[in-house]
Amino acid sequence: MIEIEHGSGGKKSSELIDQVRKILKTRSAWKNTDDDGAVFNLGGKKIVFTTDAFIVDPIFFPGGDIGKLAICGTINDLAMMGAEPIGISLSLVIEEGFPQKHFRKIIQSISEISQKSKVSVVTGDTKVTERGKIDKIEITTAGVGIAKYILPNTGAKPGDVVISSGNLGKHGAALLAKRFNYTTKIKSDCQPLCNEIRSVAKFLTSAKDPTRGGIAAVLNEVSEKSKVKIILEEERLPFKKEVAAIADLLGIDKFALPSEGRFVATVPKSKAEKAVARLKKFNRKAKIIGSVEKGRGVYLKTIIGSLRKIEVPEGKLIPRIC
Amino acid sequence: MIEIEHGSGGKKSSELIDQVRKILKTRSAWKNTDDDGAVFNLGGKKIVFTTDAFIVDPIFFPGGDIGKLAICGTINDLAMMGAEPIGISLSLVIEEGFPQKHFRKIIQSISEISQKSKVSVVTGDTKVTERGKIDKIEITTAGVGIAKYILPNTGAKPGDVVISSGNLGKHGAALLAKRFNYTTKIKSDCQPLCNEIRSVAKFLTSAKDPTRGGIAAVLNEVSEKSKVKIILEEERLPFKKEVAAIADLLGIDKFALPSEGRFVATVPKSKAEKAVARLKKFNRKAKIIGSVEKGRGVYLKTIIGSLRKIEVPEGKLIPRIC
């Protein structure tokens, strides 16, 4: 039986995806980089192809809605691989009776991000289901991008430092607060990252946007794939006090809170200050948050100097909010 | 309010899609050919990009399942534009509690079509929702293909003939029969069309697979976009007797029954016999079914010589079966 944990972004998710890959026996001209997208070489250029499904609750939230989330998610998956997005596909499954007003608002959000990031929706599909077959609306976006070189998950090296493009976890905190009727001014961080990543891509050895499972999930992925140990400094943690407080209040590990408009990256120490300076032009909270060493695993170095292991999130993390 | 008719493949669907397009203000390097996919020129090659969402009932049916339907649907959208599929993305939204056995069977179906048609699933996403948020499973596939030239919907010309790659409407008949517990041996025609279309593409002036809305929808689309009149010959209609009988029994126009592994195309008269001969190697029911004249609209020329207009399907056609 498929369980909710199979979609958590944690261990059970990986198991399910491995099962799919095994049955599909993927053999093709596409290079599977183990990133969020696939890469195909065409006439000296690298075409990157990626997809993401969104069925979230609530569909409107402080700082965005499911439409913004979907287009940003796909733009960001391309951006994280070092690709310039060239087109997005938009597939909508709508429940009969869904208000036209809400529908237009969602499409309007997609349009705004499309204009702002200069990435067009170029093709799509629209289906309407009978009542009860889907909860309001489901959106799947796919994206095609072109890259000169691919930013892999396997490139982090001992001696690198870890940088964050801004404070993390706001998307998770804002949606959970709304879902549990907790009053806060925190808004989702949902935004396209193509401009930020373009400004620093040449410095980076790896980059990931901490969506499902937060940095607990993605830094463990980078650690495993790059075969390195990652140490985060507690005094440099990129969490706003209120975000950490919401996580504590709801009994959720803040490291597992999703962001939808931030990335963490590894960069050689010698280039770290330059990279952070460039990122600060977009978000003044960009900073160095840790370092890469020989070894395995992700650890938090506390203020008193002890090490606490940050595990891959397990079980049912949080409701479906990204 | 979004109504079920907005997803019917008929007039209300077109209105909804036009609304989306208007809000999105699509302006880009992609050429919108008004086909099912978008086209982007890259280094002298045409990249075609398309997507399709599938939420059907039943998910298993005689001749296939939702997985087969999804991968064939996307391969066929690319094939109809004259593109060779180079990669498919697979996005799954699964309801908590969905049986692993059913899940594996669906992925296995996708794998079989992938191997058979030599088109790989190269990237994907898997989400699991809480019970009641989705009905069993929803699949969205997107596809990237490369074309030397694009087969448009606008190319049909007076003097062409209309050909069909085989008998039509079996997908619709099989699923409706199953849904209404009517016993029949009819199976879905669901299959990839890339080989068939490759064998005749150079002869064709237009090609469409009659999925949602059947040939009633797609031939009216070709008529409108190519600015021609299409005349079908009643004595040459490509419907198996039992398919027509099921349509009659359920009070559905057989011209609106969907197929998921057939296409109708227009071809200059001089090349029609050659094209049909090639198609007969795949399906001996391939044949000429009508002709293209000056004018507008789609008509059935009855055996007694009268003309009956075949309208674009309106309203709630049939339950969500494709």
Describe it for me?
The structure is a homodimer of 322-residue chains. With 322 residues, chain A is an alpha+beta fold. The first copy, chain A, contains 8 helices and 14 strands. Chain A has helices at residues 11-24, 66-80, 100-117, 170-179, 194-200, 214-226, 241-249, 269-280, and strands at residues 37-42, 45-54, 60-61, 64-65, 84-95, 121-129, 137-147, 160-164, 206-208, 229-233, 264-268, 287-293, 297-301, 307-309. The mean pLDDT of chain A is 91. The interface between A and B is large, with 83 and 83 residues.
Which key phrases capture this entry?
alpha+beta; 30% helix; 14 strands; five-stranded mixed sheet
The number of distinct helices of chain A, counting runs of at least 4 residues, comes to 8
- Biggest sheet strand order of chain A reads 9-11-8-12-10-13-14
* C-alpha termini separation of chain A: 22 Å
Helix-strand category of chain A: alpha+beta
What is the strand tally of chain A? Answer: 14
Q: Percent of residues of chain A in helical segments?
A: 25-40%
β-strand amount of chain A: 25-35%
Strand-and-helix sequence of chain A, N→C? HEEEEHEHEEEHHEHEHEHEEE
Mean pLDDT of chain A: 91
The Rg value of chain A, from CA coordinates, equals 19 Å
Described by strand count, sense and barrel closure, the largest sheet of chain A is:
7 strands, mixed
Poorly predicted spans of chain A: none
**What general outline of chain A do the C-alpha atoms trace?**
globular
Show the largest interface: A-B, 83 and 83 residues
Oligomer: homodimer
